[in-house]
Design goal:
The chain is α+β, with helices and mostly antiparallel strands. 18% of the residues lie in helices and 38% in strands. It has helices at residues 12-31, 40-43, 46-60, and strands at 2-3, 75-81, 85-92, 98-103, 107-114, 116-124, 136-147, 151-154, 160-166, 171-178, 189-192, 202-208. A hairpin with a 3-residue loop joins strand 2 (75-81) and strand 3 (85-92).
Length: 216
């Protein structure tokens, strides 16, 4: 499910209202999954709205450009990690896309705070077990644009595989990741065997589990 509340550059109060509406829409989608129905935070959403407001204030102050973050290909600011719910803010730069990775068994939500991000979703051509020494083929199935106030979500019943790339200037995303009660499967990153264009419909890549630099 994908919705796109329209929003241009506006005063902070209007931006906060549109992003809060996007958060509600996205959490409704996540809460519809039976595997996440037991999570209290999806029923009492006050804490998530507080974190979204903190992320908007953080962005307005320009803290994403703090000197200690320079040198990382992208920036992650963690706001909450309680074992099942992980919330934070991504800052992405045009020359450094977040590589292709999966989110197995996890429900997720992205809300655009500033700039424009392209999300490219992939599917594996074969449902075989992943092994780091064996290449897999990923097929591009969808490209989404996430601008300020837009949101995208994915459920825990789908093995989400995607990458994220900022457009022509830095962009920020508010992220919520929620795990079902059972432990989630470890995430994989996918290293293309050769350089590939963003519009290619097929990518041959090697999976690995080591977290890239700059990822918390």
């Amino acid at each position: 499910m994908y919705a796109k509340p329209q929003m241009q550059e506006r005063v902070p109060q209007e931006r906060a209202a549109v992003c809060a509406e996007a958060l509600e829409y996205g959490l409704d989608q996540l809460g519809s999954s039976p595997r996440l129905a037991d999570l209290e935070m999806l029923r009492d959403r006050g804490r998530l709205h507080e974190l979204l407001h903190a992320a908007l204030e953080h962005m307005a102050l320009g803290d994403q450009h703090r000197p200690e973050w320079q040198g990382n290909p992208w920036n992650w600011e963690s706001l909450l990690d309680d074992g099942r719910t992980r919330v934070g803010v991504w800052t992405l730069f045009p020359s450094n896309p977040l590589p292709i990775h999966d989110e197995p068994g996890i429900g997720g939500l992205y809300i655009g705070l500033s700039g424009t991000v392209f999300q490219r979703r992939y599917q594996r051509s074969l449902a075989t077990d992943l092994a780091e020494e064996r290449a897999v083929t990923l097929r591009l199935v969808e490209t989404r644009t996430i601008s300020a106030g837009d949101w995208v979500d994915f459920g825990p019943d789908r093995n989400e595989i995607h990458c994220l790339a900022a457009d022509h200037k830095p962009a920020t995303l508010f992220q919520v990741l929620i795990s079902p009660a059972r432990p989630a499967v470890a995430r994989h990153w996918f290293l293309p065997i050769r350089p590939y264009g963003a519009d290619e419909t097929e990518v041959h890549a090697l999976p690995f589990r080591r977290e890239p630099r700059g990822f918390a």
